[in-house]
Structure formats: structure tokens, C-alpha cells
Amino acid sequence: MAQTGRNSAEGYGLIAPALGVMALGLAAPLALLLITSLKTQSGLGFAQGWTLAQYAAVIGRASYRVLFLRSLLISGAVTLLTVALAYPVAYFVAFHARRKFVWLVALTIPFWTSYLLRVFAWKIILGFNGLINSGLMRLHLIHEPLSFLLYNPFAVVVTLAHAWAAFAILPIYVSLEKIDRSLLEAAADLGDGALRRFLRITLPLSMPGVIGAAILIFVPTTGDYVTPQLVGGPKGAMIANLIEVQFVGAGNWPLGAALSLMGMAMVAVIAGLFVMAARAGAKAAR
Amino acid sequence: MKSLRLYALAYLAFLYLPVLVLPVFSFNNSEFIAFPLSGFTIRWYQGLAADTAMQHALGNSLKVGFATALLSTMLGLAAARAVTRYRLKGAGAALGFISLPLFIPDIVLALSLMLLLGAGGLPLSLAAVVLGHLLICVPFALTVLIARFEGFDRNLEEASADLGEDPLMTFWRVTFPLMLPGIVASLLLTFITSFDEFLLAFFLSGTEATLPVYIWGQLRFPERLPMVLALGALILTASVALVILAEYVRNLGAQKTTVGA
What we know:
The complex is a heterodimer of chains A (286) and B (261). Chain A has 286 residues and is mainly α.
């Protein structure tokens, strides 16, 4: 019973406050960020005039390129790992678990702790004097602590794969749950084996959930600050840490702004390409 | 099937082990978080009870959480009603705009808001944190509430109007009770999101730390860690209790609507 005409003013009135908050909290700050990125720092203020120097600096410096690339590789690895690890679990719950609700609650409870402490727990587990090392030494399996566990990209990937697991399990579960079971029965009646049924029906029909999960994980993990800061060390630092250093440590706001905008643009382009490629792939498979 | 079940259980262990570090070592009678365990103590919890800075931060987090939950649910309720009950031009674009913060790294949201405050000559404050949290909570509230608006029978609202109720009474006596489970879910989701949010609060709170900002500060001091873990264990317990309570309320609501309808 959608209404038009005279009443639509009422509708615009209802959505206006939310749009107003977004205009104030999102559009205005992003516009300022863009303006800032076109300036140069001069003491505590900005120099006169406009310049693309910050963007040239971001593209020109090899160390920045390394950090951008590393952020993408880490997030890509996290996305792949998290989705691959979660898929069989979502599949089990959707198709074979007897008490689905209990499983879903059990799978989501770990995410009701503080995000900071979930990440920090991994520092405790992987650290030089941490749980793995102290446990293994206690069992006399090693004689000195393993130092390759913490402060590297590996630690960042493991921690993020744990921290974002729910964002893979739930969308994949929902898309598997929606699959019409009679399609599988029909395929079985026509002589398809279990593997063929999975590859030709279940997997393609669950792709929306997989793609959704991948985007939900890839986009925010590329810009994550806490995890690389706590468990990454210098070898595991990512874009967000570099941005923070420019704004807070180095006091170079224009460069920080340019890094922010280029990081955002890069993630948006890659996520867009990924969705397009996945859709094209799904169409070709059918 | 058996191997799939085993895998699911192993995955569950992967999810739970890091989280169990919190309660286990919060009762461990040692400043060092390492094996072997060295006896039971509640002194870390007693330490928390005496920590006034932590309690002040908790108070700030509750204030910010309540304000964010209430405001984002009200904004979401109005906007969800607008897009489900009216045929608006540009509704899709408006929804896209409102959901945009979910696709922008928190650090960029935080720093650009800091630029805005600086440009406007406004101080960092808890109010600034609430504005930041609205950016990430309004999209959540909107998603939950749109689903609920789409789920209920619009004829009930029309019947109420036909029977002579004015729009305000119709909203209060028909729409609101039917929306209540969605409203509770939205309040809960936005409160927990705000309560747990670190990065925006870190850059926008100024001198008034919220609980995650306080925890972040404590992580630098190894001797404070067992207390932080005790705090984490308490937060986990409270969240689980809250979620179970919400699920219970939601079920009550669901039964009521089916009986009523």
C-alpha cells in the first residue's frame, strides 16, 4: 500500500533526519578529507593554494606501495581462509545438524566479547612468553620459545580469520538454508552422485552467500587498525597504521588524507571487480 | 557425515579457545599469563571493584551506548517507515548513502570526523563519539527495522484507520506493538555495537575514555593484564545474558503477535 502524491512529503520528512545525520557525520567530513588531501602541511596549518603533491607522494614512494600491497594480500588471504574454513561448518549446520538453533548460538557466542580482547587473546596465545610457547616448553617439546608465531603477517591473518568468522558463517548458512531441497532430490533421482549434486546445485546456489561473506570480510579487514597494531609488528603493519601515523605521529594531515582516500578507492575498485567477476563466473557456470 | 561433524566441532574449538583465555586466566593466581596455571584467586576481580577509572569509563560507555541505541533506532524507525510505506523517488540512493559507512574503514570515519570537529572549533567529546557511532549503527538499525516492517500485515494499519483511529493512535496501538520485536533487536544490536566500538571512540573521546579506550590503555602494562582479562570475562558473561534475554523477549513478542493476529 505505497502512497504517492501529497503523502510523499510525509515520507521524505521521515527519512530526512537519518539523511541529515549522514550528511553531517559522513558527507561533510569526507568533503573536508578531500579538501585536506589537496593541501600541504605548513607548521600547524596548511600552505596556501591547491596541489596534487600528496597523491604523487603516495604513488611515488616504494614503502607506501609495499604497505598497500601487503594490506591487500593480508585481507585477501584472510577472506579466502575465513570463507574456506567456515563453508563446511555452515554446510553442516544447514544440511545435517539436528539442532540448528543451538549450533548457531554456539557459533556466535565467541563474538559477544570485546573485539579488542578477542584480538589481544591471540597476542597472549602466540607471544614469546605466551600460551603456546609456555605450554610446549612445559611439555618439553621445545627448549626455547618459538619467535616466529607473533609480529608478522601470519599472526595478523590468523587473528583476523578468527575475529571475522561470524561474518562468513552466517551469510553462507543463510544462502544454503534457502536452497530448495527438492532440487537435490530431483538430481539424486536422475542419478547424480553426492559430489556432482554438491558441485552442480549446492555450491552454485550458495554463491550469493559466499560473495556476500567475502565482501563483508575483505572491505573492513583491509582497513583494520587494531589487529596489525597488536599482533602485526613492523612486518605486519597495514594501511590504517600508516594513516594513523601521518595524522597523529607525523602531523602530516594532507598526506594522511590522501592515503585514506586512495586506500578507500583501492578497496572499492577491488571489491567491485570481485563482485562483477563472481557474477560473471556464476553465469558462465550455469 | 561424521567427519563433517568432527570438523564443525574442531572449528568450534578454534572459535572458543582464544575466548576462554579470558575467564581461565582471570582466576589464575599469577601476574604472568602463561602455563602452568598457578592456583585460584579472585583478587583480579577485587582489583576491578576498586578501580574507579575503569568504572568511570564504564559509565561513559553506558551513556554513549544508550544514546546511540536510542537515537539510531529512532532514526532507523522513521527511515524504515519512509522506504517501506511511501513510494519515494531516490529511495534506493538514500538507502545506499545511509549504508555507505559500512564500506568505509573506521579509521577514515574517525579521522575525517576529527577534521570536521577541528574545522568547526568543537572539542573532542562523548557527543562526538555518539555522532561517530550513529554512522555505523543507523545502517544496522535500518536493516533490522526494514525487515520487520516488510514482515507485518499492512491491512492491520488500514483496518485501524477505517475504524476511526487517527494516525498517531494507529501508530501507537497497532504499528508500535507489531514493530516491538524489531525495535528491541535494533536497540540491542546498536547498543552492543557502540559499547564494543574502539577506534572512533579512541580518536573522538578526548579525555573522557570509554571502556574499550580504557582497556586499550591498560594493554601496555603487563601487570594490569589479569585484571583486563577479568573485565573481558565479565563483559562476555553480561553480553551472553543480554542476548539470551533478548531472544526470550523476542519469542514472547512473536507469540503475542501470532495470537493477536
